[in-house]
Specification:
Layout: E1 2-5, H1 6-10, H2 26-39, E2 44-48, H3 55-63, H4 72-78, E3 79-83, H5 88-98
Parallel strand pairs: 1-2, 2-3
Helix pairs in contact: 2-3, 3-5
């Protein structure tokens, strides 16, 4: 099992979507940390907390994984998002992005 703590292993400040947006971009996190961990096999735990996350950053990291060859079923089983109570909405948004859904369900509005 691989554990990635975004605040500890990446940055306490997250940036834009693309590398051109700076070193803390979603592309940098996804391509440099998350994808290699997933390609390594086994479960991958991503701990969220510390930084604030824009929906664009989350969508770029997690919503694009299926376009990189990861099936949604595989991600559901191997990618574990850990979050404390203060980040429960962020966790739910990530889980919805992984499933290819909007981060906010109509029922919750």
């Amino acid at each position: 099992m691989t554990v990635i703590d975004i605040g500890r292993d990446f940055s306490l400040v997250t940036g834009g979507r693309c590398r051109s947006d700076g070193p803390h971009s979603a592309e940098a996190f996804r391509d440099d940390l998350l994808v290699p961990a997933l390609r390594g096999g086994g479960h991958v735990v991503v701990r969220i907390g510390g930084p604030s996350y824009s929906m664009a950053w989350l969508e770029e990291v997690f919503g694009t994984l299926p376009t990189l060859g990861f099936s949604r079923v595989d991600l559901e089983h191997r990618l574990i998002i850990e979050a404390d109570e203060g980040y429960r909405h962020t966790k739910m948004a990530i889980e919805r992005y992984i499933l290819g859904l909007s981060p906010v369900s109509p029922e919750s509005e």
